[in-house]
Amino acid sequence: MRSRRYGLLVSILLVSLLFLTVQTRGGGAAGAGEVVAVVLTPVQSVLVRIHRGALGIWHSYAGWKAVRTENTALRTEAERLRVEALQRAETEQENARLRRLLDLRERLPMTTVAGEVIGRESGGWVRALTVNRGRGSGVDQQTPVIVPEGLVGRVVQVRAGASVVQLINDPASTVGAVVQRTRTPGLVEGDAGGTVRFKFMARDGAQVAPGDLIVTSGLGNLFPKGLPVGRIASVEDKGSALFHFAVVAPAADFARAEEVLLLTGQTSRDVAALFGTGG
Amino acid sequence: MRLFLLLATVGGSSVAQSNVVPVFAVGGVTPDLPLVLTVLVALRRGPEVGCIVGFVAGCLQDVAGGGLIGVQALTKALAGFAMGLLVGRLWVASPLVQVPGLVMLTVAEGLARFLLLQFFHFPVSLGGLLAHVVLPQALYNGFVGAACVLIAEAAEVARRRRWV
To answer: What is the CATH number of domain A111-273?
Structure first.
């Protein structure tokens, strides 16, 4: 056992020395190297190929993992930027709305209170907005409420910190108005379907056409004179009836109104020119 | 199967030595993976297997390195044999013996290689070789050997638990 063990060692040492001797004798260097290389090179080539393959797989995996991590980070970043862009757009829109409201407020020859819409009621029975300005802000019943486009309605209920505004398309709403071009008087009323109608136009002197602007008449001192109410969308001709009526497209977009002005003061001036209605 | 696994490990370590190990060079020093493998195999399988594994691994390294074939084959065969002989004489099962043993064996193998190469007019001084190659590599081998020993121990414990 022991002699076999040392025999193996001596054999291996001899083989190694033989390799070295053959290589160092002139011109024989290639000999031993080639003998070993003939056996080992194919093995080594295969091993290197396996190693490279494994390394390639590892690199692919590492690359995939890096791409995945990067992808997740980019998605998060994109999501954050999208939210930021939406917030910015929202802020810009709000800014523009408030600027228009402020411009109007500065032009109007009366005291006003700016309010924010905090609630809506548009079920059909009642069409109203709730505004975050009430008794404490000097708001009274019947205070007209406007947006830069025109009339929204009037306050019908005042609370300590809020007011309920009846919209002009509420079935119970009635506003004295005139057609701006022809000065034809009538009443703007809402109906159950949400349509706004201009009623009681005198048949003979009407000559009202679609597109005509309707403004408040100022009669009764409830609304200032000249507040844009809407434009005639169509005229209903009832033949021999004494009065005509017209369907009106409201100037204000009630569904989108977010900030409003409550006209707490009075004026006898015609304010139509202060609104950019083109009429 | 065992022989095939052993050959694959020897081949793999030699290939790794020339392809992968350079990536882990610290200050230009790399561990001698085939030597670590030879020592670990010799510790478990005795001097004969250690000697053969050292010879094959050394041959592969000589061929891959393009130098004199037989130098590392001889020194690593000697290292494997010597380590295998110690198994019965020292308490080599402890990592506290294995790792310093590996460091010392690396130094011894380096010295043996240097002595052998003196016959072929190797043009480097022993001091420079020891300071820049042999001793740093011995330390590196110690760390790699310690890691290998720990991994082998953990694998052994896991295997025993599975059987229990």
So the answer is: 2.40.10.340
